[in-house]
Design a protein that fits this description.
This protein has 485 residues and is mainly alpha-helical. The protein has helices spanning 3-59, 62-72, 77-108, 116-122, 124-132, 134-139, 143-164, 171-183, 186-192, 208-238, 241-261, 263-277, 281-308, 310-318, 326-332, 335-350, 356-381, 383-404, 406-415, 418-432, 442-463, 467-484.
Amino acid sequence: MSEKKSLKVNVIMNALLNMSSFIFPLITFPYVSRVLMADGNGKVAFATSLISYFLMIAQLGIPTYGVRACAKVRDDKHLLSKTTHELLIINMVMMLVSYGALAGALIFVPRLQDERVLYLVCSATIFFTSIGMEWLYKALEQYTYITVRSVIFKLISVLAMFALVRAKEDYIIYGGITIMASSASCIMNFVHARKYIYMRPMGGYEFKPHLKAVAIFFAMSCAAQIYTHLDTVMLGFMKDDTMVGYYNAAVRIKQIMVSVVTSLGMVLLPRASYYIKNKQMDQFESISRKSLGFTLLAAAPLSLYFILYAQDGIFFLSGADYAGAVLPMQLIMPTVLFIGLSTVTGIQILVPMNREKMVLYSIITGAVTDVILNAILIPPYGAAGAAAATSIAELVVTLFQIVVLWKDIKPALAKLQYWKMLLGLVAGTGASFWVMSLSLGSFLSLLFSACLFFAAYGAVLLILREQLTTEMLGQMLGKFLKRKK
């Protein structure tokens, strides 16, 4: 397989992988939301958000650092094995520290004592993720394996969900199945790793060279977790589980859209690191320019569409009882664009250039912004306040990274044809807006409006011959004609 084709396959596989992580709850959530109601969903959302902080301690920034470190030595099995062992040992030590901290929290924090069983069940993700070495497989660009394995476990979990979650009291079972869907496949990762590395002890381990970079990535992870999950945790402490349930419903659709537009960043991290190490800067600049264009083309219409049709999205996903989630969803959807851009500028450009400190500073700035705004907006506005705070924080992160990289990405940004994208968005809005006046029900309204919106958007880009759109269409037609011959 050629390098170019390999990248395309990796992007598709990683997009499917990321989407499956949210399509699984999207399939089950309409059922579960009606069985558990906002209160039960809020309990599980609060538990998973809380456990994410202990998972962050166990991971210590290795998920991102490990991809870069292993990608640099992937052509040498001995060095790859040694690097993997060192990072895995660090993971195991931090996993024990994390479980110790969790035990202390469950004993001494009154708010957590009523649902200890739920928190312990959800904490299984700490163990699974620690032994899973997902970063190794991403460094080796084994996205087909990762995706197929993950989808199989998620399909099993979907069946388990419908079979076992039958009453409002089954929220602990729901939490356990959610963890199985997202993390249980990590056991296969551990067993399968012998295909790529030596599993016997290597000896001569050196942990010190990793610690500085790991510390930076850990700080990045800490700051990112603050404004990724703090809104949910603060809602749980400052409001109640029902408000968390509304917010969680709003976030579901946003997460799926984010997974689509960010699929490029982590796929291109190992390739970008490889290009920089081998001083292939033309290739590095080329994939960076295309990924910026792809992100704008994909994220802008997705954000706008789900702002316009938030009510239909929420009602279809969760039911009319979740009307309180509509405004939060509208307020949080701009983050699809902001996160998409910052994934490119941060993960794909700054990290391979060994400028991860700039990513850290941007995330800290965003985290501080989020904490302050959450404290101000959650008390009077609840879930809507948390959503607004998150959007502003993500915007701050994105602007920070763009300013840092301005000289490097200015030529790429200058080549993007913004006015064509804007006309496409206007056309999509105009073509679909009349659907709102019809009483079609949430599903049919989403179906017809989405077809009209994205068909009009794509048609305008093609008619105006937007560069990246015509290039992608040409490549697809070329492949089709080649196969036909």
